[in-house]
Structure prediction request, 269 residues.
Amino acid sequence: MRRALAGLAVTLALPAPALAQGGAAKPVVGGGSFNTAPLLGPGTYEDTVAAGETVYWKVRLAKGQVLRVKATVDTSQIQTDPLADGFDKGLANLTYFLDIFSPLREQLSEESGGTYDAASARLEGSAAAGAKTGTATGPRVLGFEQILASDYNEDKFPAPGEWYVSLNAADTATFPAEVPAELPVELEVQVIGQAQPSSADFAKALPGPRKEQPTSPDTASGPERLFAPTDQPADPALTLALVALIALLGGLLLGTLAIVVLGLGRRRT
Prediction:
C-alpha cells in the first residue's frame, strides 16, 4: 500500500518540504520493513511516508559514534478545518514517531530506566506551521568488549553495525486515514564522533576453538568387543552372532532332553 496514490475522488498533491528545495536533499526511497531499509550516510534526504504506515532506513555506525536524526514531515496540504471540503479526520489526527533501533532491531527507547529515551521522538508542530518536526539521538556505540564485560547491565545492544531509523505516520482505530496520502519527509542524518578501534586485548581474550583429542582406534576383537564399557556401544555383528549361538545351544539342549525323556518312557512300557 505504501507509495500508492491513485484513482480516488480526493487526492493530495503535496509539494516537497521547503528545506529540500534547491537540491540540498538527496531523493531516497525508504523501505517498508527492516529488511528493505536503504543504507544512508550522513547528509540530508527527501522521502515520503504514507498515512498510517512506517518507513525504514539504516545507517552504519562504528564504536564511539552517535547517530542523530531529524525528521520533518510536510503537513501543509492536510485540511484541518472540519467544515472544509476534503477534510479527513484520519489525516488531520495523524501522529508521527521517529525511532532509532540497534543492530538487533531493538527499539532503544524501550530500555528500562529511561536510559535511551532520546532515541525516540514524537514530531511536533502547529497546523499553522504546516510541518511536524522531531529529533532522535541514539546512545554512543559501544565496542563488543564493553557490551560483553561483566559490569555491563543494560538490556539493549548498542553495538557497532547497521542501526535502523523508522518514521511512523500513525492513524488510529477511532480516526483511520481514509484518504491515501504520501507526505513529504526531509531526513537529516548526523553521525557524530570518530570511529574507534576495539581493544587490542579483546580478541585475545575470546575463547578459541576447542581442540578435540584424537580417539584411539578400537583394536579389541572377539568377546572383548561384545562386552563393551557402559559408555560405548557393543559391536552389533558380534552381538547378533552371540545371540544366534545361544539360541543354537539352547535348541541342542532341548533336543537332547527330549530324547532322554522319550527313552525313559519306552523302557517303562
Remarks:
- Helices lie at 89-92, 144-147, 200-205, 223-226, 236-268.
- The two ends are 104 Å apart (CA to CA).
- The first strand starts at residue 26 and ends at 27.
- The CA atoms of residues 202 and 208 lie 12 Å apart.
